[in-house]
Amino acid sequence: MGVEGCTKCIKYLLFFFNFIFWLAGGVILGVALWLRHEPQTSSLLELQLDGAQAPSTFYISVHILIAVGSVMMVVGFLGCYGAIQESQCLLGTFFTCLVILFACEVAAGIWGFMHKDTVSTEIINFYDTVYSKAINEVVPVEPKQGPTATTVLKVFHETLRCCGSGQVTSVLTQIADRVGITDICPSSGVSVNCHTRIKELFTDKIYLIGIAALVVAVIMIFEMIFSMVLCCGIRNSPVY
Question: Is the whole model's pTM more than 0.90, yes or no?
C-alpha cells in the first residue's frame, strides 16, 4: 500500500505535471535545435568577412536552451518515476534539481532582459561594416581572395529581403542597382531597410524564447510544491 486520500491525488497530479514538464523539455529542445539550424538565421550568423565572424551572441542563448531542454527531459523522467514509486530519495533529488533549474532560469531571464537588444545591435553593426566595405568595392582596385564584402552583403539582402541600412540608403542603393552601378539588392526590389528586418528577425525569436521560459517556470513552481507535499505525505504515511 502507498499514500492515500489527498496525498494520493497529489501523487497523480505530480506525475501529470512531470509528464507535461518532460514534454515541455522535448519542445524546448526541438525549438532550440530549430533556432540553431533555421536557414534564415544560420545563413546570417555564419557569414565571414576578412576573417571576422558575424556576432554569435544569439547562439549562446540557443545552446543554453538545448542544454536546458535536455536536462528537463531527464529531470521530468526522474520526477515521474519518483512519484509513481513514492520514493522520498528520488523526490528529494527531483526537488533539488528543480530548484537549481529554476534559479538558473531566473538568472538567465534577468540576463536576457538586460541584453535583449544586444543581439540585434551586434548584427546591425556587422551589417553596417559589410555595407561600407561593399560600397568601397563598387570599383575594385585589385582582385580579392575569399568572399568579398559585396558577396556577404548580397547574402544579407537576399536572406532578409531588404536593402540598405536606412530608408534613404535603401532607395539610393536600389537606384544604383537599376542603373547598373551595383548589384546588391534583392531581385524583388523591396524597399524595407535591413536595420528594421534584423530587429524584427531576432526580436521575434527572443520573445519566443521568453514565452517558453515563462511557461516552464510556472510548471516548475507547481512541481516544487507538489513534490514537497508528496514527500511529506510519504514520510508521515503509517505504511512507512
Answer: no
